[in-house]
Amino acid sequence: MKITVDFEECLKDSPRFRATIEEVEGDVCELESKLDKLVKLCIGMIDAGKAYNAANKQFVNGIRELAQQSTRDEVIESSLTKFAESLQEMINYHTILFDQAQRSIKTQLQTFVKDDLRKFKEAKKQFDKVSEEKEAALIKNAQAPRNKQHEVEEATNILTATRKCFRHIVLDYVLQINVLQSKRRSEILKSMLSFMYAHLTFFHQGYDLFSELQPLMKLLGGQLDQLVVDAAKEKRDMEQKHSTIQQKDFSNDDTKLEYNVDADNGIAMEGYLFKRASNAFKTWNRRWFSIQNNQLVYQKKFKDNPTVVVEDLRLCTVKHCEDIERRFCFEVVSPTKSCMMQADSEKLRQAWIKAVQNSIATAFRDKNDDGEKLDRKSSTSTGSLDSGGEPKERSLKGESALQKVLAIPGNTCCCDCGQPDPRWASINLGITLCIQCSGIHRSLGVHFSKVRSLTLDTWEPELLKLMCELGNGVINQIYEARREELGARKPQPGDPRLEVEAYIKAKYVDRRFVRRPSDEELRTKVVSLSKQEKRLSSSSEHLPPRPPPPTPKLRPGSNASGQSAVASGLEARRDSLFCPDELDSLFSYFDNSSKLRSIKSADSGIQNSADGSREMLANTPSNNSLADAEAAESPPMAMPATLPPPVTLLPDMAEALAHGAEVNWVNTEDDKRTPLIMAVQGGSLVTCEFLLQNAANVNQQDAQGRGPLHHATMLGHTGQVCLFLKRGANQNAADIDEKTPLSIAVDAANADIVTLLRLAKMNEEMREAEGPYSQSGQYNTNSPTEMQYRKCMQEFISLQLDET
Questions:
Q1: CA angle, corner 194, sides to 193 and 198, nearest 5?
Q2: Which span out of 365-369, 372-376, 463-467, 626-630 was modeled with the highest average pLDDT?
């Protein structure tokens, strides 16, 4: 190793040594400046490379999008996909190159500057300091007077110690200089060599990549010449066709619109017509109409699902309309509605009228064995689904809900301030509120209180039942249990809003007045209550079977044979809320799945058809019907001497939640069941509604992968199935045995739940197919599926509430 500064020379501290030191220090200072500059340039290069890679990625993504758009052209799609993959590989190689540059140049040289040059600077500081001390000691020793012996000795001792310290420091400094001079070579060359090898690897990888791509590029190059020739030929053909069509006479083009019953696509006639809307403004909109499959349909856009104007043309008539201001109008009238339309000319109007008349004649002429099915389908669709207009929901609104809720003791005054005649309610707490307190509750957020009007909002039966099970008295016993003990003043009517707001936050948010339970009670409160309800429901097995309800009246429109069949099936108990006509209408109207239709009965020989599905569903007994049948075959059990007393669980569950119990707590000792699942097993619909209103997860599963909807289906609790579907339960979720609620209901032969789940699924599919909005810009909540679905759900929920 070549020594830059001689160790012997440094001990002499000669002018030659000082000149060498000064030269070395200047060289190190310049080295530091150059290295700092190089590191900054490297950082700039890396940042620019990252920006280049980001822009390059966007470019490659653009190539991929172009390839996806060109799926119809296999050559372009495959070529662009291959090019995008190769360019992506080059981006990866660039990323590796910049990472290597960061490690070799930036990190390595920064470490050299920070560590080695820092040590050199520290050694220089110590050398400069000891040099000054040595110079001062020499001056003091030279100035010591001859006749003052003690000053001479003191100066001599200081000089000796300073020289000794100087020799030690200068040797360390020279060592640091020599090490730095030697290390600078290796560090600089090492980092640069690593960087150059990274470039070598990068270009080798790029060369290998494009060498593999070269045959494809050559092949495409050869095909490109032929593509240019083909494009020029296609252009000439298009120009010739354009010139030929341009010379044609289009003045009588509307006469070419003809009715063709044997069209390959099944569309006998199609074209644009103006249609008068059924709204109050009677606006006219231009739509694309077509006659297909004996139906008159229209659509706004090609991708929209056609809207059926007339479901069966045999049941309609067509006539001219001369009594309105617009020209060329005609009207298609069916038993349920009429549709006013306008053509662009008199010839087109005559063509459309003739097409509708021909369709009517063709449908009657071709009538065969399928005619009876069409008659039944048209009658049930117009009668069962469209006659009602709105579903018969047993929901209450206005004064009816107000009277029922205010009839609960304590509800005639506001729960928080005592204001009489409240008109608002908190549905998850089950209390009534005045308008001021309702505004404060609303500001707390829905995770504390969900506010609803008693007079303006519509009240579903389950919510009304929940309000009647709780009330102000019950909730105040929980949330104000320690109010008097703590000396807190309850607000009065007319108190300032700030005082009332502070009291409500202390009561419901901080829960300051709730009496705290022990830890064990806090952990098991909600689940133990649900288990208690489960035990109560199981005790009902010892009760004698309920008397059968009276046979419901048959709906109009059924024939004599149908009446006798239905009556015989309803002698003991009605199996389902759906009469056979309704089920036939539902499945002929909406059924696009063959899952249920594939089920055949070995005893009755039900065929794979819409009628077979209807009969299977209408005649399959529900769980309750099966229980009645079993009770009829076996002798009834004796009435027990004493029955268990009725227990109201909702107040206890409200108290548990007030104590901080977790509504979605998972019981690991009981198959990971949640309070909501245990409430399902208890059979109480109101308890489930209470937990759902207080943020219970309707899709949380147990150890078997079953959610509340699975358990409600297995137990045959139809009302709970409706409730969970309303609250967003996922009916497509499968348990560990790959069983969905629908498959469980089919296996259990529960006709009501099967039909509900099928309706929900069909409703979902139709919503997805139609999109979130109808053509008028608003969601179609009055579609037959939606109306029948809501009607059935409300009916089942009300029935279960009545039974409990």
A1: 115
A2: 463-467
Crossing angle between the packed helical segments 650-658 and 685-693, to the nearest 10 degrees: 20
**Per residue in 618-657, pLDDT tens?**
333 333 333 333 333 333 333 232 323 334 578 888 888 8
Q: Which ranges in the chain are annotated with CATH 2.30.29.30?
A: 258-366
- Strand 396-397, strand 458-459: pairing: antiparallel
SS3 310: strand
Tens digit of each residue's pLDDT (9 = 90 or more) over 689-708: 889 999 899 998 999 899 99
Query: What does pLDDT average to over the chain?
Result: 74
Could you give the CA distance from residue 214 to residue 222 in angstroms, rounded to a whole number?
A: 12
Q: Which residues contact 537 (CB under 8 A, 6 or more apart)?
A: 681, 682, 683, 684
Question: What is 7-235's CATH topology?
Answer: Substrate Binding Domain Of Dnak; Chain:A; Domain 2 (1.20.1270)
Give, rounded to a whole angstrom, the gap between the first and last alpha carbons of the chain.
99
Q: What is the Cα–Cα distance from 211 to 216, expressed in whole angstroms?
A: 10
Residue whose pair of structure tokens reads 């003991």 in the numeric block: 572
Nearest to 294 by CA among 228, 184, 203, 371: 371
* Fold of the 258-366 domain: PH-domain like (2.30.29)
Phi and psi, residue 290, nearest 5°? -155, 150
Q: SS3 of 340, please?
A: strand
pTM for the model: 0.42
Q: Cite the DSSP H helix spans in 247-273.
A: none
pLDDT digits (tens, 9 = 90+) for 647-683: 457 888 888 888 888 889 898 888 889 998 988 888 8
Give the residue range(s) of CATH 1.10.220.150 domains in the chain. Answer: 396-515
Tell me the helices (H) and strands (E) count for the chain, helix number first.
Answer: 26, 12
Q: The dihedral of CA 92, 93, 94, 99: what is its sign?
A: positive
List of residues 6+ apart from 640 with CB closer than 8 A? 542
For tokens 């909005």, name the residue. Answer: 773
The pLDDT value recorded for residue 390 is: 39
Q: What residue ranges of the chain are covered by domains with CATH 1.25.40.20? A: 650-803
Domain 396-515, CATH class in plain words: mainly alpha
